[in-house]
Specification:
The chain is an all-alpha fold. It has two domains: 59 residues; 50 residues, no CATH class. It contains five helices and no strands. α2 packs across α4 and α2 runs antiparallel to α5. The radius of gyration is 23 Å and the shape is elongated. This is Multiple C2 domain-containing protein.
């Protein structure tokens, strides 16, 4: 609700927020890449129909009714995910990658840019008042 009254502060606050979040990641990032944990991937909790679908041959050896149900379910789920999360997840991922590079120098430069840009835009908007 406060953004309705202070629209000129949205971009500086966003840039300063990115700087703060990125500075937290800067000091607590691991030096080595993360390894996959099989227990966390929940491989053992898949349904039998999902395993059957993955191991099915091409072209399918199942009856057409089962294949039709599979494709209808796939279209419904994929359409919902694509329309709701496509653009948002891409933008958030790009933003996260900017503040969590393995190269500490590049991360520091990006965070410094966000800090300077946030303060600069904030000063420019207040100077025009």
């Amino acid at each position: 609700m406060a953004y309705i009254f202070f629209l000129e502060e949205v971009l500086p606050l966003l840039l300063l927020g990115i700087f703060l979040k990125g500075s937290l990641f800067y000091f607590w990032t691991p030096d080595l890449p993360v390894h996959t944990d099989v227990a966390l991937s929940r491989v053992s909790s898949t349904a039998q129909c999902d395993i059957d679908e993955e191991l099915d041959t091409y072209p399918s050896s199942r009856p057409p009714a089962i294949v039709s149900v599979r494709y209808d379910r796939l279209r419904r789920v994929a359409g919902a995910l694509q329309t709701r999360f496509g653009d948002v997840s891409g933008s958030v991922e790009k933003l996260f990658l900017l503040i969590s590079w393995r190269d500490q120098c590049a991360t520091a430069m990006c965070l410094l840019f966000c800090l300077i840009a946030g303060f600069g835009i904030s000063l420019l908007t207040h100077a025009s008042d």
